[in-house]
Specification:
By secondary structure, the protein is an all-alpha fold. The chain has two domains: 54 residues, no CATH class; 282 residues, no CATH class. The radius of gyration is 32 Å and the shape is globular. It starts with a helix and ends in a 5-residue tail after the last helix.
């Protein structure tokens, strides 16, 4: 017992020499460390990244890993041009002027602009924000938000798949007409001679040279739906060329696509300006402009005009296909997607100008 008491006394004597620091000194040390961190910023390098992800938990580590592995656009301009190039199509060049003509010319612009502000810009901003924040494509982005929303991403990919299947056929027709446009005279401007070379083809004379070239030379349609036509090898080669160009454009991801969009975003505007100048020089162009921009107030009470305006917004901006989410996923996390949504909306409306 005496030995135990002597040992406890020795331990007590040792504790007497331990410096007990007041709480005020600990607060000073904490303030000094906080001040050093404020001046020098957060830790950088591998240690800083690991520390940040550890505090954020598994979700933070996953987001940080995606930000590190996900490629990015070379600059914000490439992203804007990619979105504009994506929206250029028949929905802007053909469908919008058709709706303007149907619903009173300039009066259709009123429901269209209202739907653009109320419907189009918020949805466009939503898609860009989701893609930029989640750093994934349409399926992964919606699934990351909630597993129950994974079907939304799958549906958008399925729609885009079927859309690209038939839309590239239209591109193939464009190549077909481009190659034949170097002939003189143009093959769709005159009717061919009959087999005896004694006159023009009877079928072409009953229809027109344009329809004859389309149905007989381009499509070579069968007499009825029960009969299968043969493969048209020349248009098939044009379709192969169209898919080959798509492959070359996306071969290296954003590295190759970011270079191509400078051309694909600029060329449509140049062509549309040429069409505009050509249209203004035609006879009766002034009457057409007066008709187009003279509003018919009674059309504003037509519910079909508002429904078609709301539908046209999806064609003009390319909403609902998941492509905008994929484009935005290659942005910097700090990118101002709200500003880009406004720029994208304005650019699409220029393409959808009713002057065309």
């Amino acid at each position: 017992r005496k030995k135990t008491q002597r040992t406890l006394k020795d331990k007590t004597d040792e504790l007497d020499f331990v410096e007990v620091r007041p709480l005020s000194s600990l607060e000073d040390t904490t303030d000094r460390l906080a001040g050093d961190r404020w001046r020098t910023g957060p830790p950088t390098g591998r240690a800083g990244r690991e520390g940040a992800t550890d505090t954020a938990g598994p979700l933070g580590r996953g987001v940080r890993a995606m930000e590190k592995a996900r490629p990015q656009w070379g600059n914000p301009l490439q992203f804007v041009f990619a979105c504009i190039s994506y929206a250029v199509g028949l929905g802007n060049v053909w469908r919008f002027p058709y709706l303007c003509q149907m619903y009173g010319g300039g009066s259709f612009l009123v429901p269209y602009l209202v739907m653009l502000i109320v419907e189009g810009m918020p949805l466009l901003y939503l898609e860009l924000a989701v893609g930029q924040r989640m750093r994934q494509g349409s399926i992964g982005a919606w699934r990351a938000i909630s597993p129950y929303l994974g079907g939304v991403g799958v549906a958008s990919v399925v729609v885009s798949f079927f859309l690209s299947m038939y839309y590239n056929v239209i591109n193939a027709w464009g190549f077909w007409y481009l190659f034949h446009s170097f002939q003189d005279p143009l093959p769709w401007s005159v009717c061919p001679l009959n087999g005896n070379h004694t006159g023009y083809d009877e079928e072409c004379e009953k229809a027109s040279s344009t329809q004859y070239f389309w149905y007989r030379k381009t499509l070579n349609i069968s007499p009825s739906i029960q009969e299968n036509g043969s493969v048209q090898w020349e248009p098939a080669l044009c379709l192969t060329l169209a898919w080959l160009m798509v492959y070359l454009c996306i071969l290296r991801g954003t590295e190759s696509t970011g270079k191509v969009v400078y051309f694909t975003a600029s060329l449509p505007y140049c062509v549309l300006i040429i069409y505009l100048i050509r249209g203004l020089t035609l006879h009766g162009a002034t009457n057409g402009l007066v008709y187009m921009f003279t509003p018919k107030i009674e059309q504003l009470a037509n519910p079909k005009a508002w429904i078609n305006a709301a539908t046209q917004i999806f064609f003009s901006l390319g909403l609902g296909f998941g492509s905008l989410i994929a484009f935005a996923s290659y942005n910097e996390p700090s990118n101002n997607c709200q500003k880009h949504a406004i720029i994208k909306s304005g650019g699409s409306q220029f393409e959808a100008s009713p002057d065309k």
